[in-house]
Amino acid sequence: MRAKLIGVPGSHPCLSVELMLRHKGVEYTRLDLPNMTHKALVPLLGFRGSTVPVIKLDGQRIRTTMRIARALETLQPDPPLFPRDDLEGDEAWADSALQDGVRQFARYAIGQDKEAMASFLHEPLLGIPANLVKPTVPLIRPVVSWQMAPKTGTAEACLEALPGQLDRVDALIEAGTLGSEQPNVVDFQVAPSVRLMLNFDQLREHIDARPAGAHARRFVPDYPGRFRAVFPDSWLPF
């Protein structure tokens, strides 16, 4: 069984799918589309909706991390993504609140840090080597950052919610839901989101001091990209 994963540079949900594919031992290739243009390109590739990740797997076109997880579990039962029956609630939380929180303040940060966008380009984009794409970033960045900008107040609200989200991750680790010897779907949903948070200069030290930070680095040792100081000090929740 082989798979083709379609995503965008720096996407933490796409990384979640990669972790699941590796866990299952499924061979795959990845095609990255330019950020925001994927909304038009994904339907042209035969998928419903306009978000990534999407995947071609065993003749099927599947979208969203949660649907992909279930398709993988059906087609390749071992090793399991769902070794316990009580994971779906935490999986859904990680796929929604946790994932979207870091997405929103990353979108804000792209508009504040002129160097950030290029720092996430380490793999080919539409098959074009990253070193050829990076010189074009200053030209496309104003449009992309405008398209990605969250509504006023959204990033600030997501930062305010961050300590509570990290508390929940730490509690899941303490309970053994996360970080056990047998990884599960919640590990693969949570770790990329927290690992992306570690790419923020203003958040890294605080998160690294938590069990959540160690868990993220265990599953995602390397996550290219960096956001410098982008948030007003008054927004920081710690």
Describe the structure.
With 238 residues, the chain is an alpha+beta fold. The protein has a domain at 88-123 and 146-235: Glutathione S-transferase Yfyf (Class Pi), Chain A, domain 2 (Up-down Bundle). The protein contains eleven helices and four strands. It has helices spanning 12-24, 38-44, 65-75, 88-112, 116-119, 130-133, 137-148, 154-175, 185-197, 204-208, 211-219, and strands spanning 2-7, 27-32, 54-57, 60-63. Strands 2-1-3-4 form a four-stranded mixed β-sheet, with helices on one face. A hairpin with a 2-residue loop joins strand 3 and strand 4. Helix 1 runs parallel beside helix 3, helix 1 (12-24) runs antiparallel to helix 9 and helix 9 packs across helix 11 (211-219). The longest helix is centred in the middle third of the chain and has 25 residues, at 88-112. The chain is globular. The model has no long low-confidence stretch (mean pLDDT 95).
